Write the structure tokens for this entry.
Amino acid sequence: MSDVPEGEVVIRDMTRSDLMAVMAIEQTSFSMPWRETTFESLLQRSDADLIAAVADGRLVGYAVCWTIVEQAELGNVAVDAEWRNRGVGLKLVQAALERVRRRSAEECFLEVRESNRTAQSLYQKCGFRSIGRRRRYYSNPTEDALVMRARL
């Protein structure tokens, strides 16, 4: 029996054994999902942090970030549909920002679909501000990305 109360979300490092659950969430969250080999490669990198959110014994979300010198990138955040709007995404982004701060990053960047107001709102709560646009960055459907930055 676990010491974690039912429904409580725990943040921990992602492991290779999490990848089946990660890929299931990835496939349902993005029109152009990352490949499993991308996650496998990132798990090998010393400059990357892959973070898992676990509740009731299963992975319910994840975040991926990496840091190069003083700049970090939040590359991917996703939460299982059943666990959205419960603060899981907020916990993941906050954990990612804490990880890159520990690596001495001074700022963190991300791209987000222009239409994804929910994600933009989450990122703004975490200190990100829109600083630019990448035209036609996304496909399926084609859409601009907003570039956001948080000063750490």
